[in-house]
Structure formats: structure tokens, C-alpha cells
Specification:
Keywords: Sigma factor, Transcription, Transcription regulation. The chain is mainly α. The protein is built from 9 helices and no strands. The chain has 2 domains: 107 residues, Rna Polymerase Sigma Factor, Chain: A (Orthogonal Bundle); 79 residues, Winged helix-like DNA-binding domain superfamily/Winged helix DNA-binding domain (Arc Repressor Mutant, subunit A, Orthogonal Bundle). Helix 2 packs across helix 4. The radius of gyration is 19 Å and the shape is globular.
Length: 186
């Protein structure tokens, strides 16, 4: 699903369009469920978390103010935060203060949020500089969590070729990110 499509569906969900919500669920629930399952490591908890995520999406779609390009990231963030909430709720109250401090510091502050958006725009620019197949492989590996073997099968290339693609693509991304680094404000 194209990022612009996700943003458009979110806008329709904000208007309480049930068919758009259904389509959003149909297209994105497998990916968001994978995030839940990875974080919670329990299928039942992951299913409950996913249900909570979509209730939250229905309730909060109107608060999404992105340009459509960050809609998938916004949905992933909702999913991660919901899973973190569930993990926090499962922790016994007797855990030490250090663990509580680590959990309390998970969300970025406004300055970090602005920097992350800027960083995301730089990453998008650099991803566009990659060969389309390589960019798709990088996204599927590092955003969707596909294994090297799954990617090799998807792209019909040997496993070592896929590893080389990803390694070289990451090196090109790092080089591009370094070239497009903003000078620090002083």
C-alpha cells in the first residue's frame, strides 16, 4: 500500500468513513500485528493489542496532521506505544525504580520529534537515490521485518546476493545521510 493511500484513508477515517476504516484494517493489520507480536511475544496479547490499536486509530484519526508521507510511521508509533502500555501494565509493582525510569523515558520530547521528522525526510530522500528493488528490500527488511531468506525468495536471488544488496544499500544510505547532514546550529 502506498504511503499517500494510507494518509488518504486516515483522512476518510477521521470523517468516520467505515469502508475506509475497513480497508485500512485489511491492508495494514498484518503489518501492525507483526509489530505487536514481536513486542509482546504472545499471540493472544498481540491480538488484543491490535484491537486496541485500531480502536485508537478510529478515535484519533482526526488528530493525524501529516502530509500522507508519514502516515504509516504514525500508525506504527500508535502500535508501539500501545504495546509498551500493555508491557507496563503487566509489570509487577515491585520492580525497581531504574526499570520504571527507563520506561518513563521512552517518548521523544518535542525537539526530538522535530529532529526525527527531519531525519525521516533525509532517509526518504536517500532511499529514493537507491535502485527501486534495493530500496524495497531495505524497507521490507528493516521496517517490515522480513528475513534475508524471505527477501531472497521474494526477489528471486540467492541468499548471499540479498545480504550483499542490503549491506551495500545500507552503506549507500549512510554515505547519503552523511552528505545531507544538516550543519549543527550554534
Amino acid at each position: 500500500m502506498v504511503r499517500d493511500d494510507i494518509g488518504e484513508l486516515l483522512a476518510r477515517v477521521a470523517l468516520r468513513d467505515r469502508s475506509a476504516f475497513s480497508l485500512l484494517y485489511q491492508k495494514l493489520s498484518p503489518k501492525l500485528f507483526a509489530i505487536c507480536l514481536r513486542m509482546l511475544k504472545d499471540r493472544g496479547d498481540a491480538e488484543e493489542a491490535l484491537q486496541d490499536v485500531f480502536v485508537r486509530i478510529w478515535d484519533k484519526a482526526g488528530s493525524y496532521s501529516g502530509d500522507g508521507m508519514n502516515a504509516y510511521g504514525w500508525l506504527c508509533a500508535i502500535t508501539r506505544y500501545r504495546c509498551i502500555d500493555r508491557l507496563r501494565a503487566k509489570r509487577p509493582e515491585s520492580e525497581d525504580l531504574e526499570a520504571a525510569e527507563e520506561l518513563a523515558d521512552l517518548g521523544p520530547d518535542p525537539e526530538q520529534t522535530a529532529m526525527l521528522r527531519s531525519e525521516g525526510a533525509r532517509i526518504d530522500t536517500c532511499m529514493e537515490a537507491l535502485d527501486p528493488d534495493r530500496a524495497r528490500a531495505v524497507r521490507q527488511a528493516y521496517v517490515e521485518g522480513l528475513s534475508y531468506q524471505e527477501l531472497a525468495e521474494t526477489f528471486a536471488v540467492p541468499l548471499n546476493t540479498m545480504r550483499t544488496w542490503l549491506r551495500r544499500s545500507l552503506l549507500k544510505l549512510r554515505e547519503c545521510m552523511d552528505e545531507h547532514a544538516r550543519p549543527e546550529q550554534g
